[in-house]
């Protein structure tokens, strides 16, 4: 099973984490299933940017981003060339290292 290494994040993974997950799993589901409570305001359908992650290692192994995902990423905070919406990125057989951005654009949370 591929391994996902999470770079420490002050709120979601203060000590970082290492997860072993089955290939074919979305990155968002892998995080949620392992107690990392990444936001996913749209219900994991790729219609927001709250589950945005930056893939530091293993990016080429992920499923290709759709045009809709790329359009949504244009709205994300801190987007980089190796950014993905974790709900749309399917894990292959390669290990990954990901960074959870410090902020997300979640108007419901910000205004609630």
UniProtKB/TrEMBL annotation:
One short Pfam name that applies is Fer2
Q: Which CDD domains match?
A: fer2 (cd00207)
Task: Keyword check for Lipoprotein, yes or no.
Answer: no
Domain 2Fe-2S ferredoxin-type per the UniProt entry, residue ranges: 2-104
Q: Which cofactor does it need?
A: [2Fe-2S] cluster
PROSITE patterns in the record: 2FE2S_FER_2
InterPro entries (alphabetical): 2Fe-2S_ferredoxin-like_sf, 2Fe-2S_ferredoxin-type, Adrenodoxin-like, Beta-grasp_dom_sf, Fdx_isc
**Record keywords:** 2Fe-2S, Iron, Iron-sulfur, Metal-binding
| UniProt similarity note | Belongs to the adrenodoxin/putidaredoxin family.
What PANTHER family does this protein map onto?
FERREDOXIN-2, MITOCHONDRIAL (PTHR23426:SF65), FERREDOXIN/ADRENODOXIN (PTHR23426)
What is the protein name stated in its UniProt record? Answer: 2Fe-2S ferredoxin
Q: Which organism is it from?
A: Massilia aquatica
């Amino acid at each position: 099973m591929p391994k996902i290494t999470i770079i420490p994040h002050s709120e979601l993974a203060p000590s970082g984490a290492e997860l072993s997950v089955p290939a074919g799993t979305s990155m968002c589901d892998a995080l949620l299933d392992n107690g990392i409570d990444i936001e996913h305001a749209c219900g994991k359908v790729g219609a927001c940017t709250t589950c945005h992650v930056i893939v530091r290692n293993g990016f080429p192994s992920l499923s290709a981003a759709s045009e809709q995902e790329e359009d949504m990423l244009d709205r994300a905070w801190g987007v980089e060339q190796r950014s993905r919406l974790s709900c749309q990125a399917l894990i292959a057989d390669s290990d990954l290292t990901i960074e959870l951005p410090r902020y997300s654009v979640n108007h419901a949370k910000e205004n609630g």
